[in-house]
Amino acid sequence: MVSSNAKTVDEYIAELPEPRADVVSAVRELLLANLPPGLEETMNWGMISYEVPFSVFPNTYNKQPMMFAALAAQKHHYSIYLSSIYAIEEIRAKFEADYLATGKRYDVGKGCIRFRKLEDLPMDVVAKAVASVSMEEFLDAYTALRNR
């Protein structure tokens, strides 16, 4: 699955085959347990998205809620999008160093971390990175980058 038309997170997970649904559910639980307060879990861009509500920050460049993080089951892998850490260079660098220190394959794309099996993902490193940026810090970093 590259993109889903599911309207809810439960629908998204239900349309995945069992082993893939289990992986997405496990990573979703990790994200939910470590997200800073104030974010909303939604379906957006065909994946599970954790967003800053419009009521908090309506002035976005694309008229979409600010995506803090997201999770997707792609055709041959899974992707976690951590916009929150990519907005703050020091946190991104720390995440990368911590990830590489685990010895696990560091497969990244533009703003995403790809993995093929749950065992390939250093869950503790992802949890720490997600929890390391508050919604306010994320918005401040976004605003600073946008106003350059």
What order do the helices and strands come in, and which of them pair?
Blueprint: H1 9-14, H2 18-34, E1 40-44, E2 47-52, E3 66-73, E4 78-81, H3 83-86, H4 89-101, E5 107-109, E6 112-115, H5 123-131, H6 135-146
Antiparallel strand pairs: 1-2, 2-3, 3-4, 4-6, 5-6
Helix pairs in contact: 2-5, 4-5
In short:
By secondary structure, this protein is an alpha+beta fold. Helices cover 41% and strands 20% of the residues.
Explain how this protein is built.
Helices cover 41% and strands 20% of the residues. It is built from 6 helices and 6 strands. It has helices at 9-14, 18-34, 83-86, 89-101, 123-131, 135-146, and strands spanning 40-44, 47-52, 66-73, 78-81, 107-109, 112-115. The chain has a 6-stranded antiparallel sheet with strand order 1-2-3-4-6-5, covered by helices on one side. A hairpin with a 2-residue loop joins β1 and β2. α2 (18-34) runs parallel beside α5 (123-131) and α4 packs antiparallel against α5 (123-131). The longest helix is centred in the N-terminal third of the chain and has 17 residues, at 18-34. The chain is globular. The termini are far apart. The mean pLDDT is 93.
